[in-house]
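Propose amino acids for all 311 sites.
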């Protein structure tokens, strides 16, 4: 069994998608579709930078989606690929969940681009710069990190934001509370504990204004049932009902990304091949969670040809 997975923020890089667009008319058409939807030359920003502008949350989120969907579009248009025929599940890390839903037909590309632009802008605006922070606590699993976060809160917000893999957990919240969590984590036996270079404290209760914005936006969007079952971030469970998907996307803004549990659940359901489209950050996490599984990273025309040979 096979799952297609889609990366989240942090996988952006200047030059992303450029070679694919040069090699494929299908990829170029996808990027043009995103540019038209946003009224912005995002394709040029992806190809040429500047990096600090691409890294802005409101640009990085639709860019990462566009890059992955361009790979999928090439697979579909030039290699005869059918996601519903080749995958049993889809999943995405944080914003990647929107890409997964786009791939599975719940949203069209233009709608996904506009939703992610709003999501990125709303998440950035939810907390003034310098008030919030995120930190990676390495070498501790979820339960001890939860204890550290609870101890560090001290009346402020400090929450587990991402349970990425065994020994790779991220906390988010008020800057002072996150700094306390770093100190407590080292006492608790973390191998490393460090602030992350992010512009806002994602996936914690401080993101409630962004969740409200997404609830309003998603209420005006038609969601179609996905042609491939989604494993949702906040439940680590399969979901197909559009109304439930809508609610989970809102919950995801303030909730924990349960990536470790999602991958483990898909592996337990029989998935033995995880295919990451548009990135190479999720594969190493998957191997730590499900070491017997196969992983493929598909970004280039060579990667696309290799994937089609093996599936």
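Proposal:
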């Amino acid at each position: 069994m096979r799952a297609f997975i889609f990366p989240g923020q942090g996988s952006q890089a200047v030059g992303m998608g450029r070679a694919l667009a040069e090699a494929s008319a299908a990829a170029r058409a996808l990027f043009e579709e995103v540019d038209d939807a946003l009224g912005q030359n995002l394709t040029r920003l992806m190809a040429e930078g500047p990096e600090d502008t691409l890294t802005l949350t409101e640009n990085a989120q639709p860019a990462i989606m566009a890059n992955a969907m361009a790979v999928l579009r090439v697979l579909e248009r030039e290699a005869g690929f059918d996601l519903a025929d080749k995958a049993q599940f889809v999943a995405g890390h944080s914003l990647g969940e929107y890409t997964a839903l786009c791939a599975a037909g719940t949203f069209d590309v233009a709608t996904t681009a506009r939703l992610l632009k709003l999501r990125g802008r709303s998440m950035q605006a939810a907390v003034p710069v310098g008030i919030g922070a995120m930190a990676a606590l390495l070498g501790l699993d979820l339960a001890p990190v939860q204890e550290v976060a609870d101890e560090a809160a001290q009346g402020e917000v400090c929450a587990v934001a991402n349970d990425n893999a065994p020994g790779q957990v991220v906390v988010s919240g008020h800057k002072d509370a996150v700094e306390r969590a770093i100190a407590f984590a080292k006492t608790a036996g973390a191998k490393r504990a460090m602030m992350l270079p992010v512009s806002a404290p994602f996936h914690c209760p401080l993101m409630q204004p962004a969740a409200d914005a997404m609830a309003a936006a998603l209420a005006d969007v038609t969601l179609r049932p996905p042609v491939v079952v989604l494993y949702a971030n906040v439940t680590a469970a399969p979901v197909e009902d559009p109304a439930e998907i809508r609610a989970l996307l809102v919950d995801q803004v303030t909730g924990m990304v349960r990536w470790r549990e999602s991958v483990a659940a898909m592996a337990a359901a029989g998935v033995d091949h995880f295919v990451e489209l548009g990135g190479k950050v999720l594969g190493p996490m998957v191997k730590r969670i499900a070491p017997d599984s196969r992983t493929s990273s598909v970004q280039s025309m060579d990667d696309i040809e290799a994937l089609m040979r093996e599936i």
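The chain has a mean pLDDT of 96. The chain has two domains: 2-126+206-310, 132-198.
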